[in-house]
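Chain A, query sequence.
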Amino acid sequence: MYRAILILALLAICSIAQASETSHRAAVEKMFQASNAEKMIDSMYSQMESMIEQQFKQMDLPEDAKPIMAKYQNKIWNITKSELSWMKIKDDMASAYMNVYSENEINELTKFYKSPVGIKFINRMPELTQQMFNLVQNRIPALLSKLEQIEQEMKNEIELSKSKAE
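Chain A, predicted structure.
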């Protein structure tokens, strides 16, 4: 008798948890729609692609190597877009949101995205993202220079330790 009651209680808890999971996931789906998440992801990829193209153009390559570079650049980009497509990452993104935000918080985010300032946030995000990419890109040369310096110091130290060991 107690066993039957325990099993019924466990089944009830499991079904409540499943219903809660389902409604939480549905709330995330609504938030994705309200925030135009798929469109924002696509926009981000477009910006990344143009940034990568600019970096390849800045490389000092012989003319005969440029078509080869373009070929492999396209291959890399196509694989990246395929593996990180919205359809492939959507469920994982939903799970991540569900792990971080409660269903109530997701509903509040959805309300924000539907508000005038939320709509402006969504519409201006590509512009903001582009500015952030530019900011980072402008800082990369100084970063690379410092990293090259550290790499040279490390090589010198390794050579010094080799010569001491001999």
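The two ends are 81 Å apart (CA to CA). Residues 68 and 74 are 10 Å apart (CA to CA).
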